[in-house]
Amino acid sequence: MCSNKIFGIRHLQVLLLFFALVLGFAMRVNISMAIVAMTDKRSEEPFDWSMQTQSVVFSSFFWGYIVLQIPSGELAARYGGMILITSAIAVNSVVSLVIPYGAYHGGWQGLCLLRGIQGLSQGCLFPTTHHLIGKWVPLEEKSRFGTLIYGGTLLGTGIQMVASGYIAEYWGWPAIFYVNGMLAAVWVMFYIFLGADSPQKSKIISTEERMYIQTSLGQTDGQKRLKTPWKKLATSVPFISLTVMHSGHNWGFWTLMTEMPSYMKLVLGVDIKESGAMSALPYFVMYILSFPCGFISDYGLKNNWFSINTCRKVSNSIGEYGPALALIALCHAPAGDVTQAVGLLTLVVGLNAGHLSGFMLVHIDMAPNFAGTMMGITTFFANIVSIIAPLVAGNILEDEYDFEQWRLVFYVTSGIYMVTNTIFIIFGTSARQPWNEPPDADDAESRPDPEVVENKSVN
């Protein structure tokens, strides 16, 4: 059975998830630009926060973020993804509206508390999105729709970087949080009326489209909830290497995310509007590159140019070794050369697009039945690293105007990119794991053949 509709309810769900990640990441990264305006000594009532204090503020989001990573995959499987993702964006909306008040009256400690609450609620965002993709997106469409949905993280980051500079310049930094909060509230209202946990629970989907999705996913007779093989996950060398890879990627991504606006302003001497546009450029490039990366991967797999394992590792190496080499080049670029520095930073972040068709999809390759839980586990550990990375950068940058200290930050980040990707290449795999299938033979027979599924998945 095939659904030939140009725009069906599954497409609507994909767009809603896309905008959820756009807004979620916009609210996640807005502090990177806002804090530049908040601590600008030329502004009225500037906050006198050192780089070390600012690094604590940057990391505070992840204090809460790690808490729900592992439980959220299980909660989504038990209660459905809709209530979790709606709650995540709703809480972030309310807290965004409160942040200016909290910063003025509670100082950096109050700001850290509020950012921690935002992180706590966003802890279920990735595992729940993985879960909903597994329910709504047919196998034949996972590549393009997976890229579109997760590309929302990059687009949200880029738009926020650009918009924040102009908003802070013309309306003041509090307006950054007010705009984010109001847009998120609008999304929540739309999702409450149009979203659903699955095709089976949607009241607006056609029978034809529902059967198309269920047939593709092998869920025509319903899907039993399987018991998570915790022991096998904990002792799986490929899964451990995947966790290491996710952690190394997060170190690089969040070091650059949190420190780049300050580097632009303090070392390169650009103003906040230009800093926002220049900081955003790499993420727009990364967003654009994510589509050809996904297309080439799928096209190559379809034509048997390479195995799925080779595809993932080559894509991931482009996304990790590429930025590592570009960071080394940045360390040897002339201090104060804005054009060369921005060009290399754009290359660093832009090449990161390879990870979207690299390790991000290995969760689904290895065990699609537990992809949400696996994403929760790797994200849990990766975001412990996300807490540490800005703190390490802050300790290195005793003098934030010293280019030599910035070089050290870039060298450390480059080394972590290289080491963790090498571990992933040696020990990682996209092969379907035996513990993905239920031990009961009857259950196993009711599911699609693993080899067929492997050839059709993913993005």
Account of the protein in words:
The protein has about 450 residues and is mostly helical. It has one domain (about 10-220, about 225-455): Growth Hormone, Chain: A. Helix content is about 75%, strand content about 0%. It has 18 helices and no strands. The protein has helices at about 10-40, 50-65, 70-80, 80-120, 125-135, 140-170, 175-195, 205-215, 230-235, 235-265, 270-300, 310-330, 340-350, 360-365, 370-395, 405-425, 440-445, 450-455. Helix 11 packs parallel to helix 13 (about 340-350). The longest helix is centred in the first third of the chain and has 42 residues, at about 80-120. The relative contact order is 0.14. The model is unreliable at about 440-459 (pLDDT under 50).
CATH topology: Growth Hormone, Chain: A
Number of domains: 1
What assembly state would you assign to the polypeptide chains in this entry?
Answer: single chain
Look at the helices and sheets and give the structural class: mainly alpha
Main location: membrane
Family: Belongs to the major facilitator superfamily. Sodium/anion cotransporter family.
Protein name: Putative inorganic phosphate cotransporter
Function: May be an inorganic phosphate cotransporter.
